[in-house]
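Technical annex B. To support the medicinal chemistry partners, we prepared a structural model of the target in complex with nicotinamide-adenine-dinucleotide, based solely on the information shown next.
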Amino acid sequence: MYADLKNKVAVVTGGSKGIGQAIAARFGQEHMSVVINYRSDKTGADEAVKMIEANGGQAIAVQADISEEAGATTLLNAALNNFGGLDVWVNNAGMENRVATNEMPLADWQRVLNINLTGVFLGSRAALDYFVKNDKQGNIINMSSVHEQIPWPGFAHYAASKGGVKLFNETIAMEYANRGVRVNAIGPGAINTPINAEKFADKTQLNDTLEMVPMKRIGDPEDVAAAAAWLASDQSSYVTGVTLFVDGGMTLYPSFQNGKG
Ligand code: NAD
């Protein structure tokens, strides 16, 4: 637990399941007040609200599409109207689909870029504008991926979006650093969430993935939530513009692990 997080107000996008729900639940354990954004899964968002309340925090579930301009405004207003301010904004929502690049419909490209990259811009813009106009030393956390660094055939749109998140994250971290606003990204590796449910249910695909993880385990959403809590807290007060990989070593060139090469 981080004492300074108590009563702080956070927005978590895509908080109805997976990593976003785990971050919301962890913020509840920190006794924060959380706006949990969902797009269509109200049940999952309500579940997250209950988890937070059971842990001593406050929460509200708010429907919004973060790829649309109005979405971020809705979420900011929910934080201000329900909890009286904003301290931490987590741009977590994201999606992916496998498709060979030569066959990729423009609509697939645009959907992934709109959610994974434009959504991060729109959320960050709303939070930064509030921080600047209220002279607040706020905190932004952007959900990137190991694929901001590792190419991923079949997912060119996804890799491009996360590569974009990397430099967007670094740029706004620099742009607002002298105001005391901190901006960091998290780069998860293989995490056990609904996005991967089908893949990890298949033994061959699960073992193929484990081959790429030096620590030989799939990460839990709570591993990522712990990183988010640390980045949100004052314990990371001199950290800005980084991507904190939470990946069991996946970015360490695992094919070299057993002395090969
Ligand atoms: P998930 O599919 O379980 O959850 C994604 C969430 O984003 C869902 O709640 C979904 O409703 C929400 N979302 C999607 N589009 C939205 C929109 N337009 N508006 C509002 N919400 C929207 O996925 P996850 O594994 O929990 O992934 C969360 C983030 O972590 C994503 O950005 C993903 O790219 C990233 N990530 C995940 C992994 C992993 O292994 N699970 C690895 C690297 C990065």
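Notes passed to the chemistry partners:
The pocket of nicotinamide-adenine-dinucleotide is lined by residues 13-14, 16-20, 37, 39, 41, 65-67, 92-95, 115, 143, 145, 188, 190-191, 193-196 (CB under 6 Å).
The chain has one domain: 3-246.
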